[in-house]
Amino acid sequence: MNDTNSIRNINIVKQGLAKRYRAEKRFRLYGVTAITASLVFLAFLFISISSSGYTAFQQTFICLTVNFDTETFGGDNVDTESISSANYQGIVKRSLSEMFPEVTSRQEKKVLNSMVSSGAAYNIRKMVLENPELVGTTQQVWVPADDDVDMLIKGHMDRNSPDSERRLSAQQIGWIETLEKDGNIRKQFNTIFFTSGDSREPELAGICGAAAGSFFTMLVTLILSFPIGVGAAVYLEEFAPKNRWTDLIEVNINNLAAVPSIVFGLLGLAVFLNFFGMPRSAPIVGGLVMTLMTLPVIIIASRAALKSVPPSIREAALGVGASQMQMVFHHVLPLALPGMLTGAIIGMARALGETAPLLMIGMVAFIVDIPGGLTDPSTALPVQIFLWADSPERAFLEKTSAAIMVLLTFLIAMNALAVILRKKFEKRW
Predict the structure, then answer these.
(1) What's the rounded Cα separation, in Å, for the pair 108 and 92?
(2) Which end of the chain is more exposed for a tag (fewer CB within 10 A), N or C?
(3) Long-range contacts (CB closer than 8 Å, 24 or more residues apart) made by 307-315
(4) Residue 196 contacts by C-beta under 8 Å, 6 or more apart in sequence?
(5) How far lies 282's CA from each of 26, 289, 368, 407, in Å?
(6) How far lies 333's CA from each of 197, 294, 303, 338, in Å?
(7) With b meaning 16 or more CB within 10 Å and e meaning fewer, what string describes 172-183?
(8) For 115-159, what is each residue's pLDDT tens digit?
């Protein structure tokens, strides 16, 4: 009888084990499926952005044979003022007319001149100002093409489509094919994208101004948020008495970490701009707003790092006669610093990608000049992406994707730095 019961119990256990094993396999399958789906969607995102934006790292240029005759620069008395005030737009038009002498009517010349970027005259002017010895010579000069020509050369515009479906006429396409045949048009690395500020012309627009604005904003954020956040965490974790007030502060810090970022933008608008009268659309204000938004994240991460230090470290320091201050700053804080740095970098990475707070304080303005300081008008990289995404030109679409690629590169680099610092300095207990 006992043997029969034992066999029955064993069979029940085996059936239960088989059922649990099947449940475990299903759970593992669900986990693998979820991870695979996440990777597929992430790969789709990166491929979509990269396929749309990689062409922005190249730019189409047209070679002009430019005659820097002395008459254009004031005759025999060539000086800096005459070079600066010369008619460079006329030089570009004359060079194009010499390349296509069959173009005679005023309307055709206007269409021909529109194939070259409006920044070509500025480039030639800058070149002559840097090297006045060019006056009186004839040079081959590569100037940026118009954005429509650039789109055609990059394959974003179908040459065989009807005229009503493309922005270039058949006559312009014929001129472009002549330039291609003569080797006077080519694609090269787009340095303008990395060295210029924003522009109404897509072929002249760059991210340098936005990147500088983001740099100054993040500099202010790091200088203010890290020491304040670490100091607050050390006080709350090591020195503050455990009472209702500290509990209330801890709850509010945790709640602030979940507040939508636009609320911090409204706070910055009300306090820093309206009350204190600080300059609008300046990195100093953007940094202050980002500091308010980043502080809760840094405080929470720093407190977690302090809690991870074993109590035996504190007890040993106090046991050999160290004061509480010495125990915290000589023993606990150095051991918790890697976790604090990780939290700070992650908080900075989040601040780098924020747009809404900066929109509220005016950093959405159209800024051409590259900022040189904390109080100069500027924009930020996420805001620049927002502005370009709203532009109707096809050329701005690829620049939007390229700017997103640059921003993602910075974010990945910052997160990788956080991982490296954690692996390098953390200690296993």
Answers:
(1) 15
(2) N
(3) 307/237, 308/336, 308/339, 309/335, 309/336, 310/429
(4) 204, 205, 206, 208, 209
(5) 54, 11, 14, 20
(6) 42, 20, 11, 9
(7) bbebbeebeeee
(8) 888 888 888 888 888 888 888 788 888 989 888 888 888 888 888
> Where are any strands of DSSP class E within 34-120?
58-67
pLDDT digits over 367-404, tens only? 778 888 888 888 888 888 888 888 877 788 889 989 99
In order, the DSSP letters of 171-191 are HHHHHHHHHHHHT-EEEEE-S
Sign of the Cα torsion 14, 15, 18, 20 reads: negative
| DSSP letter assigned to residue 126 | H
How much is the pLDDT for 84?
81
pLDDT at 49: 87
Amino acid 32: pLDDT: 92
With a cut of 70, which residues of the chain have pLDDT below it? 1-16, 74-76, 425-429
Looking from the CA of 96 toward its CB, the CA atoms found within 13 Å total: 27
From the list 159, 65, 168, the residue with the least C-alpha distance to 111 is 168
Q: How far from the centroid of its chain's Cα atoms is residue 363's Cα?
A: 14
Query: With contact defined as beta carbons under 8 Å apart, do 353 and 407 qualify?
Result: yes
